[in-house]
Amino acid sequence: MSPTDDFDYLTKGCVDVVTGASLRAKLARGKKLTVKVGFDPTAPDIHLGHTVLMRKMKHFQDLGHRVIFLIGDFTGMIGDPTGKSKTRPPLTHEEIDANAETYKTQAFKILDAEKTEVRFNSEWHGKLGSDGLIRLAASYNVARMLERRDFRQRYEAGQSISIHEFLYPLVQAYDSVFLEADVELGGTDQLFNLNVGRDIMPGYALEPQVVMTTPLLEGTDGVEKMSKSLGNYIGVDEDAEPMYAKIMSISDDLMWRYYTLLTDVPPEEIAAEQAKRQPMPSKMALGRLVVTDFHGAAAAEAAEREWKRVHQERQAPSDLKVVPVEAGAHKPHHLVVEAGLARSNGEAVRLLRQRAVRRDGVVLDAKAVVELGPGDGFVLSVGPARHVRIQA
Question: What does pTM read for this prediction?
Answer without folding.
Answer: 0.72
